[in-house]
Amino acid sequence: MPKAIKRFSVRKKEGKRFLYKISQILGIDAEKVFGSKPQIEIINVKRKRIYLIDGVPQVAMLEDIIFPTLFFKEYLNQLPKVTVDMGAVPYICNGADIMAPGIVEVSGDFKEKALVAVIDERNKRLIAVAQALFDSEKTRTIRKGKALRNLHYVGDEIWNLMKDSFSAYL
């Protein structure tokens, strides 16, 4: 891990508050998923914060948006999915938002600002976690412009920082 990146532990009381917060935001029982007393650490990378829960990068935060990382498979499998064509993949994996013309399928229902898993058309692999700019019905019908805001993707600073240490979770 580069020396410029700060990693620090969260106090137990703050950890309990954080688990409550992610339970509310993600709609999960964080104590059931992570246990009642997990070790929580924070790594600051550019504009994002990565939360290591028992040593695994499960959750991140950008601005005020808390979202699962691509390593939190149990949660990501429950999210609604947007499938994109293969032509969109290189752009998404370079940080571009998900544009309506690249969407080939919307699976599941979601509201505006909901978290959505983005998968590629050919391999059905998870390539990004995004925030919906519209609800699922509108996302299915729009033909131009941005449809989803890209929060975290294969190849970003979170992915690159963690891929070697946590490749077993990919």
Q: How widely separated are the two ends?
A: 19 Å
Q: What is the beta-strand fraction? A: 25-35%
Largest sheet: 6 strands, mixed
CATH architectural group of the largest domain: Roll
Assembly classification: single chain
**Structural shape:** globular
| Structural class designation | alpha+beta
- CATH fold field value of the largest domain: Archaeosine Trna-guanine Transglycosylase, Chain: A, domain 4
The count of DSSP E runs of length 2 or more, i.e. the number of strands, is 11
Tell me about this structure.
The protein is built from six helices and eleven strands. With 170 residues, the protein is α+β, with helices and mostly antiparallel strands. It has two domains: 6-72, Nuclear Transport Factor 2, Chain: A; 75-153, Archaeosine Trna-guanine Transglycosylase, Chain: A, domain 4, CATH 2.30.130. Strands 7-11-10-9-6-8 form a six-stranded mixed sheet. Strands 1-2-3-4-5 form a five-stranded antiparallel sheet. Strand 4 and strand 5 (65-68) form a beta hairpin. The radius of gyration is 16 Å and the shape is globular.
List the helices and strands and how they pair.
Blueprint: E1 6-9, H1 12-26, H2 30-34, E2 40-45, E3 48-53, E4 56-62, E5 65-68, H3 73-76, E6 81-84, H4 89-92, E7 98-99, E8 103-107, E9 115-120, E10 126-132, H5 136-141, E11 146-153, H6 157-162
Keywords for this entry:
170 residues; alpha+beta; Nuclear Transport Factor 2, Chain: A; Archaeosine Trna-guanine Transglycosylase, Chain: A, domain 4; six-stranded mixed β-sheet; 11 strands
